[in-house]
Amino acid sequence: MPDTFNRIQAGTKATTLGAFALLLGVGIANPEWLFKVALIIIFIALSNPIGSSALAKATYKSFPLPKNLVQDDLKELHGGEDNDLN
After folding, report:
1. For the chain, first and last CA: distance in Å?
2. Which of 24, 54, 57, 66 has CB atoms 3.0–4.6 Å from 3's, for a disulfide?
3. Half-sphere exposure of 51 toward its Cβ, with a 13 Å CA cutoff?
4. CA nearest 41: which of 19, 64, 25?
5. CB of 4 within 8 A of CB of 10?
6. DSSP-H helix ranges across the chain
7. How far apart are CA 49 and CA 36, in angstroms?
8. If the chain, 86 residues long, is cut into consecutive pieces of 10 residues, what is the mean pLDDT of each piece?
9. Does the pTM of the predicted model rise above 0.85?
10. How far, in Å, CA of 28 to CA of 38, rounded?
């Protein structure tokens, strides 16, 4: 992955889908746990995007932006400040 933002997205997707697959396997193997597994899946589906968003925002504020960035939607939100620390 070329930059931190892509790595965060790929890592979050992999952990989310991997956890879903594992939990669905547990739910199929033990049907009496299916309700608990469903609750865990819902929690993961809600918490992983929030965590990756927080990491991306911290990265945006802390490091220089990637050179291949096409559009910076957050520049206006943060007062148009230049994030380049070089």
Report:
1. 22
2. 66
3. 12
4. 19
5. no
6. 4-29, 34-62, 74-77
7. 21
8. 78 91 96 96 92 84 75 70 49
9. no
10. 11
